[in-house]
Input
Amino acid sequence: MVINFSILSEHLDRYLAGLGGTLAASLISLVASFILGAIIAVFRITPFKPLQWISAIYVEFFRNIPLMLIAFFTLIALPLLTGAVLVPFAAGLTALTVYTSAFIAEVIRAGIQAIPKGQMEAARSSGLTYVQAMWHVILPQAVKVVIPPLGNQFLNLVKNSSILTVLSASDLMYQADLINSDTFDTFSTYMFAGLFYLLLTVPLSFGIRYLEHKYQPVKGVRA
Output
């Protein structure tokens, strides 16, 4: 197949607009899902049983439901149940956040459980509350331990942001759909869209590898 580079030059503004929408959605959802996932992870291992049950149900529920179904529920069913109407972009962000946070919660929980229990005991004995010890001592160490799987979830989030297209929110795939409807050159249109996705995911991938190398334990030395 011949690549039609005129599509890129003639519709560059659309691609850039879509890239901006995807970047904004990814950054907002990344921060929100990390914060929510960390909270859920702490709930999973807290001594308070009701919080354990609630967080376990949350994780199992959202990890086992397709993202598209969550997005449609957020856009259509949520207003019917609560009266809160969300614009497509906000509905997509909400769906991305709750879906990704369930996976991040399990990653962070594994990191927390990898930290020796003596760390928490030492923090509590120094006068810190459980929340303070978790926030200042345990979580920073846990995040460093799980940088590789955490980074994979962030990469998945960027790619999953294409769910905004289904909700008619302006992202990269939505703009690609509009371009394709005008040019009827499906191959070239979506190939360029894929290249723009690479502009987001490749730097993120290298950044994750840098952090992994920076914070990995030195061989022969026990952390």
